[in-house]
Hints:
The structure is a homodimer. By secondary structure, chain A is mostly helical. Helices cover about 75% and strands about 0% of the residues of chain A.
Amino acid sequence: MDYLSVNNFLKEDMEKVKKELYSNLDSDVELVNEVAGYVLDSGGKRLRPMAIILSAGLSGYKGERSAKLGCIVEYIHTATLLHDDIIDGAMVRRGNTSANVKYGSDITVLCGDFLYSKAFINLVKDGNPEIQMILAKAANTMSEGEVFQLVKTADYNLNMEDYIKIIFSKTAVLFSSCCEIGAVLGGNNTTVKKKLKEFGKLVGLAFQMNDDILDFLGDQNITGKSTGTDFKEGKMTLPMIMLRENASKEENKIFKELITDSNFTLDKLEYIIVLMQKYDIKTKALNYVFEYVNKAKSILNSINIQHNFDNSNYKKYLEYIAEYSVTREK
Amino acid sequence: MDYLSVNNFLKEDMEKVKKELYSNLDSDVELVNEVAGYVLDSGGKRLRPMAIILSAGLSGYKGERSAKLGCIVEYIHTATLLHDDIIDGAMVRRGNTSANVKYGSDITVLCGDFLYSKAFINLVKDGNPEIQMILAKAANTMSEGEVFQLVKTADYNLNMEDYIKIIFSKTAVLFSSCCEIGAVLGGNNTTVKKKLKEFGKLVGLAFQMNDDILDFLGDQNITGKSTGTDFKEGKMTLPMIMLRENASKEENKIFKELITDSNFTLDKLEYIIVLMQKYDIKTKALNYVFEYVNKAKSILNSINIQHNFDNSNYKKYLEYIAEYSVTREK
Lengths: 330, 330
C-alpha cells in the first residue's frame, strides 16, 4: 500500500475538501485570499482532513460534514504554520519561499488570524458544540505548547516527558482531534471516541518524532528541507535526547556546549551528526517510534463497529497512515 | 457625568469581568499567564465589556453571562492588540513597554493566539450560536481590515469610504458586536438588535476618528502617546484626509511627497501639524465626529423597551459613552 492508494480511495472526498478550502477564500481584500491561497497551494499532504474522513467512515458516517470539517482543521493547521514561520523566522516552507519572506510578517500574522476566524465561522455553522470544544481546546493547547517549546529553547537537559508534551501540543493534539471528530460524526459511544482519540494522538506523536529524526538524519534530496534546522533553532528533539543518553561523558560535555551556544555553524552540526551515526541513533530512534505506531495499530484493531456498509477499507487506510507516519522519508 | 460615574455604576459588574479575565489565565505554562496578565493589567478602559453590560441592561438582561461575554470580547480585543504591536513594531502600549519588546514577537504572537482560543472556548461554553457567529465574523473582519490598512499604507489618495472601511474593521465592528450581543442577551426583537448594533458601530467609528485626531493634535502629556505615530507608519487618517481637502495645491504637493516618502523625520511631522493648525483641522474633524455621535444618540433614544426594572440608567450611560468617544482627550 502507498500514499497514492489512500489518495485514490479518498479522491472524491478530498476533492470536496479542496473545493471547501478555496470557496471560503472570499475576502473582498484580495491580498488575504492570495496569501491564504499561496500557503494552501504549497503542497501539504492534507493528512488531517484525511484522518477525519477515514475516522468518520470507520465510525459509520458518510456525509458532507467530514469534508467541511476537514477544511476547518486544515485552516487551523495552516494558521499555525503561518504563525510558526514568524516565530522560527523560516525562509522556506515545503520547498517554497515562506509566506513571511514573500509577504512580510505583518501580512502573515494577519492571514493566520483570518484563517483562524474562518475556521471558527465554519465551526459555528456546523453547529456541533462537542466538535467546537474539541477544536477550541486543541487550538489553545497548540499555542501554549509553542510557548513551552520556546521556554525550553537550548535546554540540554530537556527530559522525555517535556519533549512529549511539546510534540503533543505541536502535532498530536490536532491529529488526535481529527480522529475524535470522526467518531463524533459517526455518533459513536464514549469508548470508540476515546480509542480513536488515543489512536490519533499516538500517530501524531510518531509523525512528529519521525519529523525530528528526518531533520537530522533524513536525505536532504528527499525531504527537500535543509538539515539540522531544529539544532539551529535550539530545539532539543528525540534524536538529540537519545544522543545525550548514548554518548560518552566527554562527548556529552562538548554536545552540551554546542546546544547552549546560540551561534550556529555547519561544523557544530557536522559534529553532532557524526556522533549520531556513531551510536546509530537513527535505528534506535525509529525503533522507539515504532512502539508508538504498534500501540496505535493495536488500539485501532480493537475497534469493532458494524455498519450497513463495508467499512474495512477505512480501517485499512487508517492503519496505513499510522505506518506512514514512521516510514515516510519526507 | 464623567467616566468615573459610569465606572461606579458598573462597579460590581466590572469586578466580575475582572475576575473572569484572570480566572481563565490558568495555563500550566506560566509564561503564557504572565504575558497575557501583563497586557490585561496595562490599564485599558474596558469599554467593550461595559458596552455589553450596558446594552444588556438596557435590553432587560441582568445575569452572569454579560460579565463572561465581557471577558470574551476583552480577550479578543487584547489578542488583536498583541498582534498589532508586532505589525506596527510598537515600542510602547498604553504607556508601558509593549509586549513584543518585553517578551519578543514570537511569544507575543502565540499569546495572542492563546487569548483567541480562550475566547473561543468560553464562547462554546456560553453556547449561543447567534453570539458565536457575531464574534467569529467580527474577528474575521478585523483581520481582513488590518490587511486592507497595510495595502493602503502611504496612499495619499485614500478616500473617505476606504478610511471608514479601515476604522470600521479596526474598532467599530467589535464595539458594534458588543452592543448587539447586549440586545441578544435581552432576547430582543430584530429592530432593537439592529439599532444597538448601529449605535455601537457609530460610537466605534467616532472613537477611532477621535483617536486619529488625538494622534496628531492631542496633548502628549494627557494622551501619554507620542505624536504622529500614524504619519510615521504611513497611515492616512481623518485629519490627514481633511488636510488634503483644505490645503492649497502647493502645500498638497509637499504633503503628498511627505506621505509617500517612508523616511520619517520630526521636521516633516512638524510641517504637517503646522498646516493642520493653519486650517483648524482639529475643529473641522471634531465637528465631523460629532455628526456620528449625534446620529448614535438619536438611534439610542429611539429605542424604547419597558422592563420590570428601571433601565433608564443604562441608556444614560450608553449615551455618555457615545459622548465620551469624542470628548475624551486620551
